[in-house]
Design brief:
With about 80 residues, this protein is of the alpha+beta class. Strands 1-3-2 form a 3-stranded mixed beta sheet, with helices on one face. It contains 2 helices and 3 strands, in the order αβββα. The chain has one domain.
Amino acid sequence: MPAGAVGLKEIERIFEVLERLGISREAVVIPLEPEHPGRIRTLPNGKVEIVVESEGPLDDWLPVLEGLLRREIGLED
């Protein structure tokens, strides 16, 4: 992931993961500042915050994100 803000291209790739899992785009918040380590958490309002990994390619992190989301929403891998 290049340094800087999370752009539309990265957000669209994350939306592909959400769609595959049946998660609404409206159910997540994606801050525009990537961090290390990338992570997810459920916010008090019930939405899932997805903080994009700042180190390494997005393609390498997306399977990790999918696993994190599956565990967060109670789906088995």
